[in-house]
Amino acid sequence: MTGLIQWLKANDEEQHNWALEYLQKKGFYTFPFPPTCYEYLIQLEKNNNTNPNYILAVNSMKSAWRQKKARAKRKGKTEFSLTINKEKKRKLNSLAKKKGKTLGETLEELIDDEAQRDEERRNEIKRQKEIFSQRLKITRESHKRKIFEIEMYTNILLYLLEENLNKMIQYETDAFKANHPSIHTHIGTKEFKEERLSYESETIKKALRKVQSWTPKTFPLDIVTKLNTKQLISE
Question: For residue 23, which of 28, 109, 169, 207 is within the disulfide window of CB 3.0 to 4.6 Å?
């Protein structure tokens, strides 16, 4: 007996076709032809199980099939040698035994698993960077809006301060002239008002220089900022 029936896998059509072709090349046929390759091989076995040439052919066929499958497994692979610690080798043997795989297959699986974990780590780092970048963008936009609001309110306050300073100087002038009409006739002139405004402005500018600001402030405001601010508070 060759053990062919036990060797054949009932549902492996690739094996059946290959085995039948192999035996037919060796000159073994049966008639009439059974409907499937598997049944054909079973019939060949029954008809030739005591034939020495057949037994030899079947044994050769099994060996050839093992070599064929081994070559298929090695396809796309390369051989290399490495030196590892005896304890690591023992652990690798133990893992291979538990998995029911060869040392090479176990090592490939460990490499694939680590490569997968490494890819997952890289993807997570990339995802975290994207989240951080988005949050940073939102924070910067929020910061810009707050700075804009602060600058806007500061300009409004400086504009109103100048307006009220001019009113104050005018009130001082009117009061002085009302109480002392014959003294200091220069009071109330354009030059006097400009001099008073310059003095008060210098005091305010000294104070502004002590305050940290995104954009350095001047007082009085430049004409463009003053017009924009006036339009803003008039809306």
Answer: 28
